[in-house]
Design a protein that fits this description.
Layout: H1 2-14, H2 27-37, H3 59-68, H4 87-101, H5 125-133, H6 153-164
Amino acid sequence: MKRLFALALSLALLCPACRAASEPVTRGEFTVALWESFGGVPYGDTGVFYDVSHNRPDTAAICWAADMGFVLGTGWGRFDPDRPITREEAAVVLRRVGNFLGFETRTMGSLAECNDFDGISPWADDSLYWATDTGLIPWAEGGLMAPQGTLTAEEATGIFTRFFL
């Protein structure tokens, strides 16, 4: 029940009434949804990223996720919380969480369907293969993984629903 309540909160954060379901989800919003899925426990600002100020509403979530090892920065001490999260970034975060939760995260199936594998960053390839192979992140139009594509609020809601239920 507690997990369902946390999931409901995370979905509400991703899809507030004033936001279109087709708008991209930021790295900060995705991290807040993840944090809320784990219960959103109070967490202090650890100052892990210089572009995450103390007064941001997502600071606790970002610091928690970084300290848990679920998220990393984008380089040079930055997190870029307001930049839309890419499909490959989301896949990497979800795979790390899956490992933490004891999920099977090896890629089992055939990925021969993928026709844009050369666009996947080397640090994300196994994670994106896993996330699409398991159906956690659906294939993009045309049989593409679209690794640099962003997630919409509607897509992120579906991902969190499939992942945590």
